[in-house]
Design goal:
By secondary structure, this protein is an all-alpha fold. Among the domains are: 50-135, Cytochrome Bc1 Complex, Chain D, domain 2 (Orthogonal Bundle); 146-236, Cytochrome c-like domain (Cytochrome Bc1 Complex, Chain D, domain 2, Orthogonal Bundle), CATH 1.10.760.10. Helices cover 53% and strands 1% of the residues. It is built from 12 helices and 2 strands, in the order αααααααααββααα. It has helices at residues 15-18, 23-42, 50-69, 71-74, 93-102, 124-135, 146-149, 156-169, 171-174, 197-206, 221-236, 249-277; strands at residues 181-182, 188-189. Strands 1-2 form a two-stranded antiparallel sheet. A hairpin with a 5-residue loop joins strand 1 and strand 2 (188-189). 24% of the residues are buried. The structure holds heme C (HEC) (2 copies). The site of one heme C has 24 residues, from helix 4 and helix 5. One heme C (HEC) binds at residues 103, 105, 114-115, 117, 169-170, 172-174, 183, 187, 189-190, 192, 194-195, 199-200, 203-204, 208-212, 214, 227.
Length: 278
């Protein structure tokens, strides 16, 4: 920027520019204005509703991603393909897509088996596009906002209530610590140890696979948050010693009996055998 430095060694600015002290800042301002106008003129016309247009772009991008990654099973218009066992997605909503893709369940590798949780292969933007496309097809729960699922700030009472709600509504399938469990017909209710708060919220509202839907009428948002708070607490607490997969105090007590009494029996047998020899 030698041009801008004042003083004898820099090349002499043109006389016309030197005439006024404000000339340089003014020139700079004018060039900025010129570049700005040029930029505005060359970029595509801004739509009247910027948000509406980005939505449309997102939906279009999602439709393309869907055609490549999902249509082979769900059909080109997400109408579902019976021969693939893949359901129609017209009314599943953005939350179902967000959940299924984020947890790596979709795209499925084997449509005949229960979709397992696996590595997600899409970026956040791609998931948003897929979700926007499916949401554009019909009704269904939207992607929750953070204040709907973030359990930060819950009181210990809220979390305790979440534990109660979990035992009433979820533990029959997922076990009382969310460790997961077997269901009839070879299906499993997965462990919830890796589930993020957002995924738990979405699972409740969309009911993946054999899981029932828990609608806001039955389990309002603040109850969902309490359940999430409980799960976060359980997942954060390192289990002390041998937990047997969090099978619970009943079965842990049972194993204590088996091992404890078994040990005593063995000891008695050993004593008896010594007595017999003597
Ligand atoms: C190999 C076949 C296959 C592919 C590919 C596939 N799906 Fe699926 N999808 C299925 C089947 C089968 C189910 C039902 C399984 C279930 O409910 O657990 C399903 C279920 C879903 C659901 C849950 C619907 C509901 O009722 O809640 C969503 C959402 C979904 N798929 C989205 C997608 C998206 C998005 C893609 C592409 C990224 C995709 N799927 C790719 C076979 C497939
Ligand atoms: C009838 C049994 C059943 C009940 C009750 C149930 N679930 Fe589920 N849940 C399932 C099954 C089965 C799946 C796996 C779905 C699939 O095949 O993709 C699942 C999946 C989930 C997942 C996704 C786990 C992952 O892989 O990240 C979450 C989170 C979840 N359930 C939370 C809950 C909560 C919280 C409740 C109680 C409000 C609940 N579930 C009640 C059966 C159940």
């Amino acid at each position: 920027m030698r041009f801008l430095t004042r003083g004898g060694r820099s090349p002499k600015p043109r006389a016309s520019l030197r005439r006024h002290r404000a000339a340089r800042p003014l020139l700079l301002g004018l060039s900025l204005l010129f570049v700005g106008t040029l930029y505005a003129a060359l970029t595509p016309a801004a739509p009247s509703s910027a948000e509406g247009a980005t939505d449309q772009q997102l939906v279009a991008q999602g439709k393309n991603l869907f055609a490549v990654n999902c249509a082979s099973c769900h059909g080109l218009n997400a109408e579902g393909l019976a021969q693939q066992g893949a359901p129609s997605l017209t009314n599943v909503g953005a939350a179902a897509v967000d959940f299924q893709v984020r947890t790596g369940r979709m795209p499925m590798a084997n449509p005949l088996a229960q979709a397992p949780r696996k590595e997600n292969v899409f970026t956040d933007d791609e998931i948003a596009a897929l979700a926007a496309y499916v949401a554009s097809l019909g009704d269904g729960p939207g992607i929750p906002t953070e204040d709907q699922y973030n359990p930060a700030g819950l009181s210990p009472e809220d979390v305790a209530r979440g534990g109660e709600l979990f035992r009433t509504n979820c533990s029959a399938c997922h076990n009382f610590k969310g460790a997961g469990g077997a269901l009839p017909n070879g299906l499993v209710a997965p462990s919830l140890q890796e589930s993020t708060p957002r995924e738990v919220y979405e699972a409740l509202r969309t009911g993946p696979g054999q899981m029932p839907v828990f609608a806001p009428g039955a389990v309002p948002d603040e109850d969902v948050k309490s359940i999430i708070g409980y799960l976060e607490q359980v997942n954060a607490t390192p289990s002390a010693g041998l937990t047997l997969g969090g099978l619970g105090p009943v079965s842990e007590g049972f194993w204590a009996w088996v091992v404890g009494i078994g040990g005593l029996v063995l000891f008695a047998v050993w004593i008896a055998s010594r007595g017999a020899r003597a």
